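WARN retry 2 of 3 for item q-0093 after timeout on previous attempt; input resubmitted unchanged.
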Amino acid sequence: MDTRTSLLDALRDHLDMTGSKKGCDHGQCGACTVLVNGRRVNSCLLLAVSAEGDPITTIEGLSHGDDLSPMQAAFLEHDAFQCGYCTPGQICSATALLDEMKAGHASVVSFEDGTQNAPKLTDREIKERMSGNICRCGAYPNIVSAVRAVAKGMSL
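OK item q-0093 returned
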């Protein structure tokens, strides 16, 4: 494999893991979002060689066999997708969002609201943290509902 191959192309073309989508190929839409070392990244911008040896989780890796992850199940339950193209990236990003909240990581909204030491999971906070993922169909309200539903089952 060429050392200039993006992680997205390596996943899709060399490993046959086609869940992550190529949207803009410029890191602007989030359709290619995957987790590297538990952190969300735009896989179209990351060279595959730079992630060598790191744990990489794609949408395919979030489920356990036929059992969907809580976020995958919530997206289905809350009808948080329409065409589905952005859904894998949205779900990976939302999964990381909750991990970030649990770890107490602040966002711009956290600073604006004065809650940077203990961010609260408000709709505004969810929207800010998901802002790197575009849904051209406009399923945003249902995406926020899905994230909220999963968060209720966690101790944040």
